[in-house]
Fold this sequence. Notes:
- By secondary structure, this protein is mainly alpha-helical.
- The chain has two domains: 3-111; 131-197, High-Potential Iron-Sulfur Protein, Chain A, CATH 4.10.490.
- Helices cover 60% and strands 8% of the residues.
- The strands form two sheets. A three-stranded antiparallel beta sheet has the order 3-4-5, with no helix packed on it. Strands 1-2 form a two-stranded antiparallel ribbon.
- β3 (178-182) and β4 (185-188) form a beta hairpin.
- Iron/sulfur cluster binds at residues 149, 172, 175, 177-178, 188, 190, 196, 200-202, 204-205.
Amino acid sequence: MRKDEQSTDETRRKLVKAAAGTAIVLPLSGLVACGGGDDTSDTESAAASAADSVSDVANDVADTVADAADDAADAVGDMADDAADAVSDMADDAAGAIDDAADTASDMVDDAKDKAAGMVDDAKDAVGDVIGGLPKLEESDPVAQALGYVHDASKVDQAKYSGRGAEANEACKNCALYVAREGGWGACSIFAGKAVNENGWCASYNRAG
Ligand code: SF4
């Protein structure tokens, strides 16, 4: 029990006792006042004894009432504590739910950003594969493979084309069929609609000039 609660309890006990004592002593005082002659001493003694007994009972009642008040105060305090705990738990749960929702929203935003970035990268790659409006010729293209096309003339298959390509200073950039576009890539009538590398080579090479 806190110090202020102990003080309140003491005050309550004193008030109850004072009220009980007053209620008992006043009538007894009147009884004593009415006595007279030789019987006065006996009457006073009896009245005092009765007053003591009644005072003891009053004290017991006051203690009982104070104990009941204490129990009630404790019960109310416990209920208040329980309610405070419940509210605190609810607040914690709500805060946790808000955090979870914020995390979920943040994850969704991050996912959306990643997807958007991926789409932008894909778009850049698609643009990068197009030179001057022409998609780059792939070495895996069937026609390219049939003519031994490579992006790097130094990698010409010498088993098939001995002494050709870089070995003979042959490359698209000095081929009569090459029309430069941009970034080292250009058009070639052999591979219409595709861009070949200026350092590339194929078996249809025809030296310019
Ligand atoms: Fe290059 Fe000439 Fe062959 Fe075309 S024909 S791919 S420009 S070497």
